[in-house]
Structures are given as structure tokens and as C-alpha cells.
Amino acid sequence: MSIYSVFKHLAFKFDPEFIHDHSIKLAAGAPQITKFFAPLSKKPQYHLNQHGLNWSFPVGLAAGFDKNAISIKFFENLGFGAVEIGTVTKEPQQGNPKPRVFRHAAQKSLRNAMGFPNLGSELILKNVKKQKPNMQTCLGVNIGKNKETSPEKTPQEYSYLYKEFAPLADYLVVNISSPNTPGLRDFQKKELLTPIMTALAEVQKEIYKPIFIKIAPDLSYDELRMICELSKEFSFSGVIATNTTLQHDLGKGGVSGELIKPFAQKIRNQACSILAEDPKQMIIGVGGIDSYAEIKDFWKQGGSFVQVYTGLIYQGPALLKNIALAIDEDMKKYQVSNVEELIQAIKQKS
Ligand SMILES: Cc1cc2nc3c(=O)[nH]c(=O)nc-3n(C[C@H](O)[C@H](O)[C@H](O)COP(=O)(O)O)c2cc1C
């Protein structure tokens, strides 16, 4: 039995958010603790360099896990190729009333209605600055609006957050797809998204960092197409697909993990085909990814980087090691010597 299985057995007896907060604080104080979890040993052949982003492993940590950027080193030590912090809002906020995170263990899924609880941009920026000199990992910063911010003031808030974090981040993510901030998903409509993108394109001229739009798995094809077209028009870097889904009847909040798979996969595949004709656009895949099989499927469609959240809760650090083992095997099978060649070989054979 692995150390993580013992930890999980105990942890699952407690409220998910309580355990998460305590574990992540412990991880922040002792990032070397990862050695007890048999972390992934990184190899140069796992490096993936796409569109100027350099990940040491094709799997990154999804947003929401280290919201306040306190444990970046811990996740880097575990073997993640990138860490996305946030969602960060301009002002600190408490989020929705607790309990707001729920396990659906039989379906290896989670449901959350958190509503961006976070320390706010000023403190989170300090946390990032403190860790930056010690950090080798690719850093994504996921930004969102405060609950009380009006639609008119929202573009300014995103551009403020971009300006604050762009000097330290490798990429930024515009989160307009969390289902737990009232009205946030309305910004996936053209008339509300365009002003945000205009404001961001303006500040991007001062300091350039790639920007991705994080989208919901509940979009129609036309809505998805419109967002992809805007990403091209504004020369953004593409989309992160997807956030949690509302297509369930389990209670409040968005669902992630095994239950999201069909919805997230459909949107990812559609986004891959819409953006295929533009080599400057990229899709970062997230949502129900919990094995190499899903990653390979995403690579066949034209994707490259992926992120995980719920899979890590259910499988622990073994998830990364198992993916690495499967990559090693496939590199032998396809007779290639690194992940970039592997992705090409898989795409060509499909
Ligand atoms: C408890 C919890 C909190 C989350 N918080 C955020 C967040 O703050 N910002 C965000 O963009 N996504 C957030 N997410 C969504 C994840 O980043 C991811 O998109 C989603 O869970 C689907 O991936 P998964 O199936 O691997 O979990 C959260 C997910 C969970 C389970």
C-alpha cells in the first residue's frame, strides 16, 4: 500500500476543503516532503516546448488547487511540468458559504461551489515573488473577477490583474467559465468577452505574455467557435478546455473528474478541429484526464499540454508516474526519443 493510499484513506473521512487547506499548508512548509510520495523523476526527454511555453513534463497542475500560490515548489517537486495558480481576484474574497466541496467517490468525481475564495492579488503576488527565485517550473496565473464587480468594470479588473502578474508569469488565463460566480459565464458571450479581450490586448502591448481563455464544457458549438475566432482575431494563444460542468443533478456547483469526461472531451475535440488551421493557436486540455489513454487521445486530436485536478485527488502522485511509464513505453513503441517526437508520431499514425 502506498503512502498516498494511507493518507487518502484517512483524509476521505474529513471534509474535502478542510483536508485540502491543511495539506496544502503542510506542503508549503515542507516542499521536500514529496520524497515520501515517490515523485516522478524528470528526464530531459519529457520536456515539451510549444508556442514559447516550456514544460518539463506534459502534465501540469490545474487552477484551483494552489489558489493562493503557497506551494508551487511542492508541486514542482512532485513532477508537474507547470503549475497554474489562482483563480486570483483583485481584492481578497471569502467565496461562497461552506460546505462547498463534495466528493462523489464512487464516480471518482468532485463537485465544488467555491466561488473564488482567495487572498487577493496583493498578497498572492507577494507569495509568487517569494518563491520565484527558487522556481524552475512554468508558472500560469489564472485570473478572475471579484463577485461584486459590475460587468462594466470587469475588463479593467482583468487588465489590472494581467499587468500585476505578467512580469512573473509564463502565461495568463482569463477565467470566464467558473459556474460559481454569478454572471461570470455570461462573459463567454461575444458582446461581453470582446471588451475584456480589447483591454487585455492593450496591456499585452506593454509586456507580452501568452493569454489563454478558460472555457466551460457546457458551451454550444457556435459559442465555442465564436470564442476560438476571438482568440485568433486578438492573437491570444488559445483556450484551456475545460472548467467544471453544470450538466448534472447532484446539487450545487460544478462537477469535475470522471463525470465530466464526455463533456470536456467533446469540447476539446471541437476546439482542436476549429483551431487546427491556425498554427499560432493552442489548446491546453483539462477535465477528466486521469490516464495516459486520455492524453494520447488528446494528442491524436492535435492537443499537447494537459492539466489535472480531480485525478490527483483520487490517484495521488502515482498518476504522474503512471503517465510517465506509459510515455516511456510508447516512446519505445514509436521509436522516438522525446515527447515532442512522440506527439508528432501519434498524430501522423491517427
Ligand atoms: C475544488 C475545485 C476548485 C477549483 N477551482 C478553480 C479555480 O479557482 N479556477 C479555475 O479556473 N478552475 C478551478 N477548478 C477547475 C479545475 O481547474 C479543472 O478545470 C476542472 O476541475 C476539470 O479538471 P479535472 O476533471 O481534472 O478536475 C476547480 C476545481 C475543483 C475540483
Topology:
Layout: H1 3-11, H2 16-29, E1 48-50, E2 53-55, E3 59-61, H3 72-78, E4 82-88, E5 101-104, E6 109-112, H4 121-131, E7 138-143, H5 154-165, E8 171-175, H6 190-204, E9 211-215, H7 221-233, E10 238-241, E11 254-257, H8 261-275, E12 282-285, H9 292-301, E13 306-308, H10 310-315, H11 318-333, H12 339-349
Parallel strand pairs: 3-13, 4-7, 7-8, 8-9, 9-10, 10-12
Antiparallel strand pairs: 1-2, 5-6, 6-11
Helix pairs in contact: 5-6, 6-7, 7-8, 9-12
Bound molecules: flavin mononucleotide (FMN).
The site of flavin mononucleotide (FMN) has 27 residues, from β6, β11 and α10.
Brief account:
The protein has helices at 3-11, 16-29, 72-78, 121-131, 154-165, 190-204, 221-233, 261-275, 292-301, 310-315, 318-333, 339-349; strands spanning 48-50, 53-55, 59-61, 82-88, 101-104, 109-112, 138-143, 171-175, 211-215, 238-241, 254-257, 282-285, 306-308. It is α/β, with parallel strands linked by helices.
Give the number of DSSP strands: 13
| CATH-assigned homologous superfamily | Aldolase class I
Strand percent estimate: 15-25%
Q: Which ligands occur here?
A: flavin mononucleotide
The mean pLDDT is 96
* Distance separating the two termini: 38 Å
Share of residues in helices = 25-40%
CATH top level class name: Alpha Beta
State the order of secondary-structure elements, H for helix, E for strand: HHEEEHEEEHEHEHEHEEHEHEHHH
Indicate the structural class: alpha/beta
- Rg is 19 Å
> In the CATH hierarchy, what is the architecture at level 2?
Alpha-Beta Barrel
